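Q: What structure does this chain adopt?
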Amino acid sequence: MAAPQILDSDKAIHSNAGSGNASQAKPERMVSIDIFRGLTMLVMIFVNQLGEMKGLPWWTYHMPASANGMTYVDAVFPFFLFIVGMSLPLAIQRRLSKGESIWTICIHVGARSFALIVLGLIMANSDKVDAGRTGMAPNVWAFLALLGAVLFWNSYPEAPRYKTLFQALKLVGLLLAIGMLIIFRRVTPSGQTAWLDTRYWEILGMIGWTYFTVCLLYIPTRRWPWAQVGWFGALTVMNIFSAAHWISFTFRAPFYIWPFKSGAFGSIVMAGLVTSLLFLTDDFTRSRNIKKVAVLCFASALSVFGALTLPLEISKVRATPAWFFLCSGMAVCIFLLLYWVCDVKKHVRWATFVRPAGINTLLTYLLPPLCAAAFGREVLFAQWNHGAFAVAQAVIFTIAIMALAALLTRLRVHVQL
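A:
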């Protein structure tokens, strides 16, 4: 998951950067957020590769929907959502400090959300392509569609000499992606010809919907930090009511009708947003000591509520309250640790390998499906899909993807919405 870069680059707004004086803010790159995102991407690639393997311990897979429990794999997606929330207020403040209007920012949010949703649909439908009706194999369709997205959303260097070339590449990418969507056809279980299946939006699509809904809540009320705590509370209450089956429309309604769903994904993003406001801005207080205490109390509260909601069970697939509370609490603690190590103590060399994935997240996320489409989804060797061999293959694949992401980032291939 995100990721991408999926969202704006992260800038820390220091003690003079409250919402009241954003025009005087001097942004500085938040290394800890980049590294947190990069580490999340590394684990995401690894567990996704292991998910297709066999003969491994139960804790190396997602817990089944019917199970009451979670594994470390079930924490990867919420960690990414949490980072999305942390980045959001910093990105909005950065844009406001540059003089952008709220209307311009809203258009940007809408365009970014739409792009993530489209990418999610492409990835969710890539295995459903009917070669006879589409005229090409599923892996060819997926490769061309994703290649078009990369060409269109790549952040090309500002080089006047190559401006025409870069514009041509963006146009080719746009036409390629649109063309693949136009010709897409699949066969339904009843044998009918159909277009894109919207029952599942894939990780990117769900991030897009969640990002859009949280922005709907945050942007109009950004001047009132306590309103964000209220939104977080409202989303958690909705999720608790859904998990207790006191309301059911949140599960039945599709994303395009009710993008908030049960409130779990939005709650995780809001948890990251509140953490960001508490610790990285002056929206609540200017005192560094109070900020530290406040964010530790917030992490503790998340963990306590996670324990209190355990009677409603804990499940990633069913997005229960205990799942998002506990994962959010863990995410706060991991961020604080990384902040102390990377931003305070300046120990960042250990993360050289993962940091490019945290900066160029969307490209890193797209590389595994691009490679699968180009080279096939078969494992490296038939005997490498079981037990220790499967783990070795997943490690090799993850290292290769992270190294490729670092290389492409160095070559200034940077996909950013």
